[in-house]
Amino acid sequence: MTSSSPHHQLPYSIRFDWGLSGAEAIAMGSDVAVVVDVLSFTTTLSVALDVGATVVPWTVRDDSAATYARRHDADLAVRRSEAVAGDVSLSPATLRIGRPPTRLVLPSPNGSTISAYLASGTSVCVGASLRNAPAVASWIKENRPPTDVVSVVAAGERWPDDGLRPSIEDLWGAGFVIAELDRLCSGRTLSPEARMARDAWTAVRTRVPAELAESASGRELIDTGYRVDVDIAGEVNSSSTVPVLESGEFTDAAAVPGV
Question: Is pLDDT above 70 for 78?
């Protein structure tokens, strides 16, 4: 992909695309990159920051994640299917039971991987979900220059062959962020892709919990016993946290004035 590729959406100050490849395309020239992974990395991230935890994103749950957690006195999130009483997993519900962690290593092949890539560049990387999209957009308006280019990335899910599966819930979450930016930040131009995501959110915003439960990803979680995760993901505008990734850790920028 050349520096002049139309896939970079260069003429526009608010951009949208899917997955790691999409992030690579639209991050060029971006000042702020927003990652959306509703079921469930960025939802779990917002719940973790709600309870005061610092979150370390990790691309895969392997020996390196366990080693890091041990060396830095952090809890390591386990897979949903492996969790027992007292464990924290990618299920956000586990963060609302018992003692909240001070530091949490949170492996995720989608949201974490994209976040790590974006943080390695020049963009400020922010995590957003349906729970905190207005807080993220408000923080960008109040703390970033009006000339900033903002790229919003829907993480998506994976097919069994590891190919990207665009997921409707991430389109809605990304569209929610874009709609709020469009409302708050006059003068910014939206790419056609960003307008499409915004309009998808507008079409569903009055019936999110029901539609989320009926989506393919929602039904998948419900069928495997995680209805509560879908319910938490559908807590629209319930969190004021703004997860910003710096020095390998997500912390709540909303809790630090002027950051």
Answer: yes
* pTM (two decimals): 0.94
Cα–Cα distances in angstroms (integers) from residue 203 to residues 16, 131, 182, in the given order = 18, 18, 16
Report the C-alpha gap between 189 and 150 in whole angstroms.
10
Task: Give the tens place of pLDDT for each residue, 126-141.
Answer: 999 999 999 999 999 9
**Count of beta carbons in the 10 Å neighbourhood of residue 154:** 30
The residue among 90, 42, 25 whose CA lies nearest residue 245 is: 42
* Sequence-separated (6 or more) residues with CB below 8 Å from residue 204: 172, 211
